[in-house]
Amino acid sequence: MQADELSSLLESELSGLAWSTQPNDLVQFGQDWTRFHQSNASVVFFPNDVEEVQKIIQVANQCDCVVIPSGGRTGYSAGAVATKGEWIISMVRFNQITEFNPIDQTVRVGAGVITEQLQHFATEQGLFYPVDFASSGSSHIAGNIATNAGGIRVLRYGLTRDYVLGLTVVTGAGEILKLNNGLVKNASGLDFRHLFIGSEGILGVVVEAEIKLIKTPPNQAVMLLALSSLEAVMSVFALARKSLLLSSFEFFSDRSLHRVMQHRGFENPFEALHPFYVLLEFDDDEEAAMQVFESGMEAGWVTDGIIAQSIDQAQQLWQYREGISESIAHFTPYKNDISVKISRVPEFMQQLEDVLAAEYPDFETIWFGHIGDGNLHLNILKPENMETTEFKQQCEKVNEHVYGLIATFEGSISAEHGVGLIKKPFLPYSKSAEEIKLMQAVKQVFDPKGVLNRGKVVDCE
């Protein structure tokens, strides 16, 4: 659409709505945390209510314009980037938390509520919202829903999906749907709510959600262990799971720790460097924790360890894990967010290490992940003197080997970041041709003209 056509449309069909065509806004709201695509949005809308969202989508259908929902823009798969003059719908004004129900322990939240905002609200009510990750201070609830976000406590508490009791969405056809109405039990036919969770904005725009809160857990203890080898990671996990009620079991490599220390100016938590580390969070039980530590030492798996003695120290230990993504962001990392069955993690990691040694000999690779749920984050750092386009092309070539291995292990090319643009070419490594056709058919039902997030996840045609 030409600029004069867009201007005429904004004045006639979409008058009264808040929007911007300022270059800075188009760039800011037209990209996410990936940096492999140039932002090229035409306009950014800032709707105030569901009817305004519906109006934008209805007009987009009339003129065959593509609309991209935009939240906190913390994604890593280019699922919310505008590359072809698309319209952006920013949900920043849907930032209210309303209708807390102390009996049902539920709360109604707007799409633009920040994850950390909901966490604090839950705490104020004496309750707990357990979905948590490094971007919780900027990610939006609707974005979490769109990718079925997981994070650091999936091991104990599950994914975003497990806390969504109701949704209000505007479909690609411009219809407003209210799904499940906050019910715990509902066997009245298909539950479309679960289609929209994890759909990455290709079926509809999440406007509002009803979220379940839970009882505050007991005091949590935090322990950081240094490990002798990759094989020791799962051995320690099995040992810890028998003795402790785990909330988190996070893994990272020596390179990850080095990057965090360098970026934030932290001291080494131990006297020496070790090849691998795991961070455990669990219901406070000092005796059981010491048993895990001592048994791990005797077996040769654990080489050193720290049990936090205060809340401040626990928070500091978490920073060694949570600071990894921030510490490597300026390298424009190529991120692989992959998963296999928990029982197959050791074998998979060993074979993947061989692939990385062969295919990435000149690139620095940063490992970390949620080992307790089979989710690994593999980050390849761009050399300073290499062009971004060339770097991306080289990584995509290697993906054929990495994702081929994932297919062999019947794993997923995306555990929690979504598919977006970055991983769409590799979707057949996780989904059969029949599944992809059904995904396209489902999109056709909810978005018959393909106006929502066209080109992401699956092709419309």
TrEMBL record:
PROSITE patterns: FAD_PCMH. Belongs to the FAD-binding oxidoreductase/transferase type 4 family. Gene3D superfamilies: 3.30.465.10, 3.30.70.2190, 3.30.70.2740, Uridine Diphospho-n-acetylenolpyruvylglucosamine Reductase, domain 2, Vanillyl-alcohol Oxidase, Chain A, domain 4. Keywords: FAD, Flavoprotein, Oxidoreductase. It comes from the Bacteria. InterPro entries: FAD-bd_oxidored_4_C, FAD-bd_PCMH, FAD-bd_PCMH-like_sf, FAD-bd_PCMH_sub1, FAD-bd_PCMH_sub2, FAD-linked_Oxase-like_C, FAD-oxidored/transferase_4, Oxid_FAD_bind_N. Its cofactor is FAD. GO terms for biological process: respiratory electron transport chain. One of its GO terms (molecular function) is oxidoreductase activity. Residues 36-216 form the FAD-binding PCMH-type domain. This is FAD/FMN-containing dehydrogenase. The keyword Membrane does not apply. The keyword S-adenosyl-L-methionine does not apply.
